[in-house]
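Worked example 2:
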Amino acid sequence: MATRRGFLQQGLAGGAGLAAAGRLAVAAEAEQDGHLHVGILIFPRMDQIDFTGPFEVLSRVPGSTVHVVAKEKAPVRDIKGLILTPEETLAEAPALDVLVVPGGPGQEGLMEDEAVLGFIRERAAKARYVYSVCTGALLCGAAGLLKGVRSTTHWASFDLLKYFGAIPVDERVVLDGKHLSAAGVTAGIDGALRLAALLRGDRAAQEIQLGIEYAPEPPFHSGTPKTAPPEVLRAARSAVAGLTERRTETARRAAARLGVDVKGF
């Protein structure tokens, strides 16, 4: 006689079999679609989670390889001192299906670096998707990629998108053709999951989300200017005022170089 325990064991085994079959199906689809090469640019004084958040997601995409790329093949420190080690220089990176451009304060030092901007332009031209995280959008803008493109970025730099000819969209993740952008810092995880779904389907992205247990429940509702208490927002704006001023001046120079009309800005 069948027992309740036996039914449970059969159910668990069946569930495991279905899960395994699902994984095999995703892997088979990935094989059919071809192997993907994802390149993520890193640089000194970046916000590491702009890199590590998307890396956590994209490194789990079936049938893909993530390339960690920098101007020089030497360890770099993020803005808080975490050491990150690139694997390849700009010249050594292979052809990329996806180019990921993170942000952070160190982005400002690259806004007029033609070696980096040229790399972004050249790889973006052949990539299936270009994904900017946080102020990585400003780097993409400086490279001339955002003219007429809907885009978002960190709230403190959102008003600068217009200097690059972009169409600012106040959303956490924005997709416009091959251009995907995420707002500040942690939004990079949301955008990476969206990218995983674009590359390998919703099922693959959902399995990745479950695998990393991404189900945020923040203890406070101060994660955006819209929800933060006024005194918190004032303090945050004050903390980045100097950097925002420098970014604005750099954005103005970029606008002149790109031929963007800044009258009235």
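The chain has a mean pLDDT of 91. The first helix runs from residue 4 to 33.
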